[in-house]
User: Fold this.
Amino acid sequence: MRLNDEETAMLAGEMGEVAQTAIRHQIAVGEFFDARDFVPVTQAHIMADTESLGQAGVMWLERLCDAKDGRHLVRVPTITDPRGTDFSKADALGQSAWMLELERRAIDAFVKLGVTMTDTCVNYQTVLAATRGEHVAFGDTGVVIYSNSINGARSNFEGGPSALAAGLTGRTPRYAFHLDEYRRATLRVQVDFVPNGLDEWGALGGVIGRLAGNYWQVPVIEMGEVAPSSDQLKHFGAAMASFGSTALFHIVGVTPEAPTLGEVGGQRLPVRQCIGRSDIEALTRSYALEKTVDVVVFSAPQLSLYELRTLAELCDGRRFKVPLLAVTSPQVKPDADRFGFTERIEAAGGTVLSGMCFYQSYAREMAEAKGWKRLASNSAKLVNILGGYGYVPMLASMTACVDAAETGELQ
Amino acid sequence: MKELVLSARHAMGRKVEGHALVANDGLSARYDLNRLTGVFSRPAHKLVGQSYVGRILVLDTAKGGVASAWMLHEMQSRDMAPLAIVFNSVNTILVQGAALAGIPMLAGFDEDVTACVPHGAWVEVDPAVGTLRVLDPQGRASASASASDAESHGTQSNMSKVRFVERG
Assistant:
């Protein structure tokens, strides 16, 4: 890779041993992908829950912030993805003391590195949305696909070590979605219906993600006159990224880089598939295995203020038979409290959790500790993930999930 | 018999030899693996139930979320990681994770690597020259051959602990 004077100095250790470690890592990744140089980034966002960090990852972070030369602070605004717990509710989740201790150690290390603990996977709704053409180093696939597709920003999937490295060096290798040629459409799909509700938007994202199948595919979607909301696109993108490892999509007439099909090179592509309602129904049915439900979870991505408002309205006058968990960001939670949404959800027997995400919080251990196996959610991303954690996940609308919390059965 | 050698466009890490675990399927450490027991755990995965520890994974593509970047490092620290990972195409996450964990990786082939390499074959991954070499398609080479890898780290010790399981 071609390095400028500052990068050469970093590599030589002149800007501290931590920056040197970080840029070495970035060069290894950049050279793998034939990056010709680095591009400066304005923000970094780190996915680093303790379940995936493990003891080894936490110790690695602690070693960084114990740098002998004391130069270990991030150089650009660097924020965090959801943590592995909401400390105030850890007992209700059946989490163990060792999990919380590891979590505290990770947080301490990040704070020492100058990282801002935003603990959110919806930073584009709550912290600082990236703008068109802005180069960023974002972790969390849902954050990347939304920022690339809806905001027109430029990021690859930056896993925790690489996102932290980008925060520490203020740059990232220039490859893949930082380059114009990788942002052109490679897969053309038509959709002949408009989804209802967030579960259907998620299911549609899942179907397209499965069709795309890998990181390098860029679906361009033609679906007539639509004007989806931020929450709908949040579920759509998060599911597409989860099912397909997809990092960028275009919707003709909706997303900023695709005012027309031709603008993203879609005209030269044959239509790969026309997706109808039956395709998302098939995906949803593939998860509907049980009638009874042990737990209802709204998470992945974290809920916006308006998802919580809708949930609060659905909870009014109910009494839940099975636990209902609603997970939001630390930015939204105080407003949910202030507007009474938390109280209304919890009055029905639900629990509002903040700053975590269900599947990043020792989901397997929670299942064992709490006896949760059959799980209902309106998040296609969540049901896609939880099969690997031993759950029987089921996808349904928010209304049907709330009904299931009350009756114990998913209709 | 003519030796099969496949060339990768992208490579990193040290040279290793081992048994290949092959499937035309993807890989996400978070979604597909039980990282405590070291087996593929997602029911829909073509390698479900099989151990990946100390194996050379030969798969189609990287899937899913960003957590794998840390998970490979954590798995490696417990000697519960694959020996190397080979993909037709890879996403950025597993490359970043392999870089942190020191796990050799190849990606980008002209052929479908999962169709060319027999499941259970004894193979060599040589990132310096970007090749995957099938040394014994039957996979009968002695596990002790891996001891010749002077740069070997913890995962090598697993080769003798883990028995090869036939597909099916």
Q: What stands out?
A: The first strand of chain A starts at residue 38 and ends at 40. The CA atoms of residues 288 and 394 of chain A lie 5 Å apart.
